[in-house]
């Protein structure tokens, strides 16, 4: 009977259904008691429900028992642990036990196993989730009905979230891919059917169109792809900035975000949201300007990025700068303490005005005014002061400023007074309140102006010379003083009359008792003279002299006394007098002595008082010809002490009598301070028993030498004299451990000072220390021979591994001690320390206790050819164990040596079933102790068990070699993590089994059990399936120039880690790394910047690697270093740099102005290390950006630099309409300036005046100068920290031009250097401009000679020579040149013929 059956395994509910086309149609497996029969299928009956286990067993879900069968019998239900696995044979439709030749047979209403292969046409009509065998046919899967793609809300613009509906029928997995429609690059991932039907894709390119595809897979069959098109939103712009260039212009700049961009749109809306401007720009644009705006008005700027039909935007709000005010005026209206400001309101929006008034030295006054205000008045100001006024228009947090200046009227001077005598008229006054610049002083004789001068503001008086102006005594003169501040002034007037002229009196002689005066005859007329000698209390002497007298003397006076001599000139009833004050000389002191009184830092001087009058004594203390003290003492003092002196130094004291600044003859004496004691005295034995070294800090002050003594108690042993430059000495041949006294004396002249300390020599060591255990395992005895020399005691330590355990102090008359409670078998270090004072000397030895035997010696296990013994470790320290195997008290093998950490021993190569004796000995150093045990071997087991994956990720093959002896068969067990998964029973002639449907990368344990009668012996091995490879590998460069980041999706199955290798473009491995399983990214550091690499990723599970997956990427290039400005001029900038490390293809240089507008672009090869830019604006700031390219990666470095400001042109120094005024004017040199520094120099080069001016200044007036004097003006153009110079004074040219030492190819040029002129060098030029060699024979830039070589014979040369003043090649202050002189020569073919041309200037 030919039968066709169908096996259906349903998921909900799971039934095993057998359909027969003829007799047994729609029949299912139904349990009846413990038997399995065929019955009609009933989905609602739970007794019909079956399920597949992970071990390929068929489980009855109601009873939790499994389908079981044996040959020739019917199907039954048994415990799942004893039930076999089911599988399909290679024949189509045959179902049977796994790894056997037993197949499912239909026998009437029952189903059983037999060895007859039936082709029954079994098929699986519904899929389950257990991945059943290939005997069941699988229908083609269908794709999902619904596919939806949404942007990732977290990674907006770079992520997509893909979701779909589950496919009808069975699906193993879904393959999801995202394809870039432009580049064709594809990202793939796999989602198992058991997971949620969705997937996330990250790190996509913003603004890109993508095709998303989902393919359902079941086994090896796939559905048609379900596709949809989508796009990522473009990224918003970065660094959006808006700058108000002017009140009606806004500059918008941004940086494009990552991804693709088709174009940009810039939108301008007002505060009501009304769109005012809509500008569309190309995708390469990064800035835009919006003009025609209203000043002081708020706007909203939006930059929209468009790509792939989508938009993204970034917005910011900004207010245009308000317009500044106009017509700003600050006026004093004749007031000295108030100013009024007025202006016209600006156009556009305005919130308020901020008005600020400030002046030098005055607190600023600020007023915030309403926008309808146009004037304000400031009171309480300082007269004559210059004030600055700032009016700022404010709107929306922005402001525009307008400034002006104004000045109050200065106040007049007060206390104006004119005094007169025969020599001069003196005009004095008190300065006015407030500020002013200078005064003008006028002297009048009636209406005639005699003097009109300008004086400085610090002047408080002015003198008119009678002689210079030809004034006559007795005449009335008037004077005026006008205060000037800016262009404003205020005047005051006074008058006075001249008295008769006096004589000019001088002291001719002054000693201790005599005074003599002389005089010259006065101008004009006189009748006679009267001479008066006065003291404070009255007139001492009076003498009338004739008109011809010219001197007088007074004698018998007191020394050191003050006198006044008055000479009166008489003419009629008018007199004038002249007095002179004079002093007689003070007398000298006597008996001067200088002593130290035993002090190291002081001296005392004593003397006898001087006779006569005196005010004080001047006392000088001199050391090494230098005055170190200069004291003035009262007249009643006869001694003085000098503290704080240098110890041991020789001093001289000089005493002089002083009377009103006059000094007597000097009295001198000498003395010396006591030397200082030495400091920080130290003595050390340096660890030696017969040696002491002494050192000290040198004594302060001066020392001739040091005396060092060494004594033992009261007995002096050594005395050394040491030079003051060597503060140390050494004593040897001393007694060990002895305490010595050491003194150091500082010697200076006859004086000494002492410092003493005590120190010991190192004590001696003990001799021959010994330690013994005395046959005990916790005991050591230590003894030694006594040490030599002095000592206090012994201290004995016992230690192990540098840890001190016990110590004992032993009197110096004993030489042994005992230590107990020690660890058995341990090697100890014994230290015997000898103590003397604070010093100790150590001697050491080693001793070992007796080891202990092992504990709990047992037979842990046994095998066919082995015995396994174990024990507890012996207490204490053990070097090693020795295991000896005995049979009938005979050695079987040589002893086995084991480390102390081992607590067992495996004895192999034994005879099965034999009784042995095992002896275990403990060794510690040369000592040992032993214990023994008996044991017997067991029967043999299989050999050479091997578990191999053969490169497959889902199966393992087990093979083995049978052991010696007979067996009935073998049972093979498959375990995972200790849980049994499968059991295969094979006949004894079979030695191989294959397990399929395993998990990738998983480790499995396989046990082969030898069965012989009722005895069993197991052999276990492990194997691992090949792990699956990673997917979605990506390699991306990081911000760092030497790093790459690798990312991937986790491999399916089990794995330990991921192994990563990175190789260069030659395939040579650079470095490697690993990551634990579950970590899906890794970073490589320390790579070469800008280099291309290939990354290989393998999954590793227990040392088994999957096939590698690779990807390529390039690191970012490194930036250049040391980008510096090499040189700059008014129109050029030159830069240098150090090339970046690593690899790169080219440089791109971008030069931007201060307004961030690109000025110049250029591309350079990698070998370039410098670049220059020409045609730039003087004094302007520029920013250089250098972009490094390596593949598609870049890096950049930037720096700021500024061109040198242009020097002013047409600099002129002219006289004004006054004799004391000079006017400096010039033309602006162009470019950017921050101001000018104007300096006026006197003829001797000293600075007369210096002014800092604004950038708009072109003229300045210097006043108060000396009429007729020649001045030089210098103007420095300033641009931030750079400057350029122009001067009105150039050096003089050379005065002659001569040729000598002439040949047909060389000539010596000489000239006379300019006189009365400063210069630094000479400039020599010639035409034609042949390349000649110039030699300076005197090697001086200012020498007047040069030798030229390399002239062309017969050629005419014209030479130009100029004097140079200033440093060469300095852009900040370029040199100044004189006018040039010329001369020409013509060489001939003969060596001595020369034609000279005319010299001209």
Structural account:
The protein is mainly β. It contains one helix and 116 strands. The strands form 32 sheets. Strands 15, 16, 18, 19 and 20 form a five-stranded antiparallel beta sheet that branches. Strands 51, 52, 54, 55 and 56 form a five-stranded antiparallel beta sheet that branches. A hairpin with a 6-residue loop joins β115 and β116. The longest helix is centred in the middle third of the chain and has 4 residues, at 466-469. The chain is flat, with a radius of gyration of 58 Å. It starts with 6 loop residues before the first strand and ends in a 5-residue tail after the last strand. The model is unreliable at 1-25, 119-138 and 1392-1401 (pLDDT under 50).
Short note summarizing the structure:
This protein is mainly β. Helix content is 0%, strand content 55%.
